[in-house]
Amino acid sequence: MAKAKKKIRARTKALRKKTSVKSAKPANKPAKARPKQKFAVSHWREQDFKGGLRTYAKYRDLGVAKATNGMAVAHVIRFLPPFRAKDVAIPHYHDVEFQMIYVLKGWIKTELAGQGEITMRAGSCWTQPPRIKHTVLDYSDDCEVLEVVLPADFETVTLD
Prior knowledge:
Strand order of the largest sheet: 1-2-3-10-5-8
Structural class: alpha+beta
Largest sheet: 6 strands, antiparallel
Strand content: 35-45%
Number of strands: 11
Order of helices and strands: HEEHEHEEEEEEEE
CATH architecture: Sandwich
CATH superfamily: Jelly Rolls
Distance between the termini: 82 Å
CATH class: Mainly Beta
Radius of gyration: 26 Å
């Protein structure tokens, strides 16, 4: 009797397979072609800190933009003392796909839309959603952060 039940189940299963209507699947979007990447290494050298996006900071490019053909940029940002609110505390956003900041030294106080004021210290890491309004409110004299952004070439929009 057990054999008969197994045969019936097997036949029923086979019939279901033959007669079942497959649900329509949404068309898959073709994957975005990623640029070919190369190996890159960047060793710390004091002379590699140069001017950049912000007048109150020096940047050390880590070679990621060149290695990824512009897919991403990574740099160490060294904030220049002293903090001057009139030069620094300007609301803005970056037209990016991804932005991550990791505090290497010191601390930085920011305000992000919907998050309020946050003080990040050495070892703190955060991501900023694309185009989130934010403002740097203060930083320590020794503040350095690692920033990774996609894409490498992006626009910063200053808000009033």
